[in-house]
Write a structure and sequence with these properties.
The complex is a heterodimer. Chain A is of the alpha+beta class. Chain A is built from 14 helices and 21 strands. Chain B is α/β, with parallel strands linked by helices. Chain B has four helices and five strands, in the order E-E-H-E-H-E-H-E-H. Classes of the chains: A alpha+beta, B alpha/beta. Chains A and B meet through loops of A and helix 2 of B.
C-alpha cells in the first residue's frame, strides 16, 4: 500500500506541477497582454489628443489667413490687433495651451502671447517643429525647455498659416502639463507607470513625474523599439524590479508610449492561482496520505476479522473425515455471527472410529473459541482411546477455559468398535442422537449427563449398545431440530428428524436423512435461525472398511 | 405478515416485571426467547438483581420456545444470585421447554415448578 500511495503522490506532484505551469503561463500571458494593451490604448489616446489640439490650432490659424506676410518679422500695423487677439484667444481659450507664438515662414519670431522673453525677429528655425511643420501640418514637436521665465518643459503644436496659397507664417501652441496629466490619470486607472516620449526618446511625461528636466530614454531598448514603430511586451528588470512593459508608437507623431507594471502586480493572480491549485493538490494528498490508509486499514481490519472468523469456523470442524463418516455443517447466514457448533471424527487407536457433535450456547468469538477448544480436547481424548468415558475432563475444560461465565456447552459423542458391532456413547445435555437400525429409528435418550459447564461433578454416564448389521448413527445440534422446514410450519423436532430418516416404506435410511438435511440447509440459508451440524456414521462403510485408514491427517503424518 | 412464523424478529415477545410484597421479583416472559430476544431478558434480570432483587421468579408459563442463548441467560442469573445468597425459581408447564431443560440437564440445576405460588414458596424457604 505504501508503494501505491508513494506512486500516487509522485503522480499528484507531477500533475500539479504540470497544471500549475500551464495555468501560470496562461495567467502570465494574459496579464502581459493586458500591459501591452494598456500601452497601445495610451498611445491611441495621446494620438487623439494631439489630433484634437492640432485641429484647434489649425482652426485658429485660419483666422490669420487674410494677414499680409510679415516683412522682416514685422506685421503690417493693420494686422497687429488681429494677431494679438488670435494669440490671446488661443492661449486663454484652449485648455493646456500655455503660450501661443507666431513666426514668419522662415521661423523668425513675430508675436507671442504672453509676450516673449526673446526679441522679435529671433530666429527659431533651429527648432525641430520648423522642419517638421514643413513635412506635415499640424506637427507635434519634441520636448524642450522653454525660453520663458519658468524654463518649463514644453511641447509645441505647430501649424502652417496659409494666405492666398502662400505660407505666411507658423502658428505655435506650447503645452506643458496636458500629457503629464494624462499619464497620471491613465497610470492611476490601469495601475501602470505610463511614460510618453517624443520622437527622440526624450521623456515628455511619465506617471507621477514632475521634473522639468529633459531625460532621454532613447537607449532604453523598449523605447528604441517603439521609436522604430514596433509594439509589444517584454518582461525584464527595471531598476532592480521585475517589470512587465508594454510599448507602442503614437501613430502620426513619432512619439512613443511605454506602460510598465511591476511583475508582482501584473501577475497578482498567479499566487492566488497557485494557492488554489496547491490547496486542491493538498486536499488530494491528504486523502491519499490519511483517508486512503484509513479506509484500507478499515477494509483490511474487516478482512482480518473475516479471516479470523473463518479460521475460528474452520477450527470448529475437522480438516478431514474418516471413511464412513459424513458430515454437514451450515452456519446460519442470518446472524452474521460465529456459531458455536462443532463436530469431529477420528480413528481410535484400536481401529474403530469416534465422532463428536457439540454446541456452545451463545455465539460470537468466545463461543467459537470454546467450541474449538472442546473439539481439540475431545480429539486428544479420542485418539487416546477415551472418546466417550472421560467427559468430566471436558467439563473441567469448559469451567477452566471459558471467558464468559454464562457459556455452557452440550455435546454427544460415540465410539464404534473396529468390527462395527459395538457402540458406546455419552451425552452431555445434548439432543438425543438417532440410531438407525434396519427396521427402526431409536433416539438415544439416555443415559445422559448435564451440559458441560453447569458445575456438575463426578463421573458421567455412558451407554453401550450391541449393533446388528446395517446400522447408522446420526448426531446433530439443536439448530437442526429447531429449524422450521417450511415457513410457518412447526419446528422440526426430534420426531420430525426421525421421520426424515425413514423411506416411504418406513425403513430407516441414512442416505435419505442426509439428503433431507442437505435440502433444508441449502434451500434457504436465511431461514436457518441457528447453525446446524449433522454427523452420520454409516456402518456399512465403517464395517466394510474396518481398517484404520480413517486416521486424520495429523495422525497419518505422525 | 404471513411469513412471520419463520421470522424470529417479528415473533411476539414480551416481558412483564412485577415486584411482590415480600421482596420477590417476578419476570414473566411470553413468546419465544432466542438470540434476538434473549438480550432483553438478560438486561431485565440484570437490572432487577442490581436493583436489589434476591428472590427472582422467571415465569415461563407463556413462553413457547427457549433457545440455548436463553438458557445461558438463565444460567447466568443463577450464577449471579448464588454469591448474593439469592434464589431463582422458574415457573414452567410448557412440555417443549421442559424437554429442553431435561435434555440439557438444567432441570437438575434450576428450581422448576408449575405455578407462581409454588415458586414463591420455593424461593422463600
Amino acid at each position: 500500500m505504501a508503494v501505491a500511495i508513494a506512486g500516487g503522490l509522485v503522480m499528484l506532484v507531477v500533475f500539479t506541477v504540470f497544471v500549475l505551469r500551464l495555468a501560470e503561463n496562461a495567467v502570465r500571458r494574459e496579464a502581459t497582454n493586458r500591459v501591452g494593451t494598456t500601452a497601445e490604448l495610451s498611445a491611441r489616446l495621446v494620438r487623439e489628443q494631439s489630433l484634437r489640439v492640432g485641429e484647434v490650432v489649425t482652426a485658429y490659424g485660419t483666422r490669420l489667413s487674410s494677414i499680409d506676410a510679415p516683412r522682416r518679422a514685422r506685421l503690417a500695423p493693420a494686422d497687429r490687433p488681429r494677431m494679438r487677439a488670435t494669440l490671446d484667444a488661443l492661449r486663454h481659450d484652449v485648455a493646456g495651451v500655455r503660450s501661443a507664438v507666431f513666426t514668419d515662414r522662415l521661423g523668425r519670431l513675430v508675436a507671442a502671447s504672453p509676450p516673449a522673453a526673446l526679441p522679435v525677429g529671433t530666429d527659431l528655425s533651429g527648432r525641430d517643429w520648423f522642419r517638421g511643420v514643413a513635412q506635415r501640418s499640424p506637427y507635434l514637436s519634441r520636448a524642450y525647455i522653454s525660453q520663458g521665465r519658468h524654463h518649463r518643459k514644453v511641447t509645441v503644436t505647430a501649424v502652417r498659416v496659409m494666405a492666398g496659397g502662400q505660407v505666411v507664417g507658423i502658428l505655435l501652441a506650447a503645452e506643458t502639463d496636458r500629457v503629464q496629466q494624462f499619464t497620471n490619470a491613465f497610470g492611476r486607472e490601469f495601475g501602470a507607470r505610463i511614460t510618453v516620449t517624443d520622437q527622440a526618446g526624450t521623456v515628455v511625461a511619465a506617471t507621477g513625474q514632475t521634473g522639468q528636466r529633459l531625460i532621454s530614454r532613447a537607449s532604453d531598448p523598449v523605447v528604441a523599439r517603439a521609436l522604430r514603430g514596433g509594439k509589444g511586451t517584454v518582461v525584464g528588470t527595471v531598476r532592480g524590479d521585475r517589470t512587465v512593459s508594454g510599448f507602442a508608437p503614437v501613430p502620426g507623431t513619432g512619439w512613443t508610449v511605454v506602460a510598465a507594471v511591476p511583475a508582482s502586480e501584473a501577475y497578482a493572480d498567479v499566487p492566488r492561482l497557485r494557492v488554489t491549485l496547491l490547496g486542491g493538490a493538498g486536499v488530494v494528498a491528504f486523502l491519499l496520505l490519511w483517508m486512503v490508509p484509513l479506509l484500507v486499514g478499515r477494509l483490511s481490519r474487516a478482512r482480518d476479522a473475516l479471516t479470523i472468523q473463518e479460521a475460528f469456523q474452520r477450527d470448529l470442524l475437522p480438516s478431514q473425515m474418516p471413511p464412513g463418516v459424513r458430515s454437514l455443517y451450515r452456519a446460519s447466514e442470518r446472524r452474521m455471527l460465529l456459531g458455536g457448533d462443532f463436530i469431529d471424527a477420528v480413528a481410535t487407536p484400536d481401529g474403530g472410529v469416534a465422532v463428536l457433535v457439540g454446541d456452545v450456547c451463545g455465539h460470537g468469538p468466545r463461543a467459537a473459541a470454546l467450541g474449538a477448544t472442546l473439539r481439540a480436547g475431545w480429539r486428544t481424548l479420542a485418539t487416546a482411546g477415551s472418546a466417550v468415558n472421560r467427559l468430566e475432563l471436558l467439563d473441567a475444560l469448559v469451567e477452566g477455559e471459558r471467558r464468559d461465565e454464562n457459556l455452557f456447552a452440550t455435546l454427544a459423542c460415540a465410539q464404534v468398535s473396529p468390527d462395527g458391532r459395538t457402540l458406546r456413547y455419552a451425552i452431555a445435555g445434548h439432543p438425543p442422537p438417532l440410531l438407525l437400525l434396519p427396521d427402526e429409528v431409536i433416539p438415544l435418550e439416555g443415559p445422559r449427563g448435564a451440559a458441560l459447564g453447569l458445575g456438575a461433578t463426578g463421573l458421567r454416564p455412558t451407554g453401550t449398545r450391541e449393533l446388528p448389521e446395517g446400522w447408522a448413527l446420526a448426531l446433530y445440534t439443536d439448530g437442526l431440530i429447531e429449524a422450521r422446514p417450511a415457513a410457518g410450519e412447526d419446528r422440526l423436532g426430534v420426531d420430525g428428524l426421525a421421520a426424515w430418516a425413514r423411506d416411504p416404506a418406513g425403513h430407516p435410511s441414512a442416505e435419505r436423512l442426509i439428503r433431507a438435511v442437505a435440502r433444508l440447509a441449502d434451500e434457504d440459508p436465511q431461514r436457518l435461525e441457528d447453525d446446524l451440524a449433522l454427523v452420520v456414521i454409516d456402518a456399512t462403510i465403517v464395517a466394510v472398511g474396518g481398517q484404520t485408514s480413517a486416521r486424520p491427517r495429523s495422525i497419518q503424518r505422525a | 405478515m404471513p411469513d412471520s412464523a419463520s421470522d424470529p424478529i417479528t415473533f411476539d415477545f414480551s416481558l412483564t416485571e412485577e415486584r411482590l410484597s415480600g421482596g420477590a421479583y417476578v419476570v414473566a416472559v411470553s413468546g419465544e426467547v432466542d438470540i434476538f430476544t434473549a438480550p432483553d431478558l438478560k438486561r431485565t434480570i440484570a437490572q432487577a438483581i442490581e436493583g436489589g432483587a434476591r428472590m427472582l421468579v422467571v415465569d415461563l408459563t407463556n413462553t413457547r420456545f427457549l433457545d440455548s442463548t436463553a438458557l445461558g441467560v438463565l444460567i447466568g442469573a443463577v450464577k449471579r444470585l448464588r454469591p448474593l445468597d439469592g434464589r431463582l425459581a422458574i415457573v414452567n408447564t410448557e412440555p417443549s421447554t421442559a424437554k429442553t431443560f431435561q435434555i440439557t440437564g438444567l432441570d437438575r440445576i434450576f428450581t422448576i415448578v408449575a405455578t407462581r405460588d409454588e415458586a414463591l414458596k420455593a424461593i422463600s424457604d
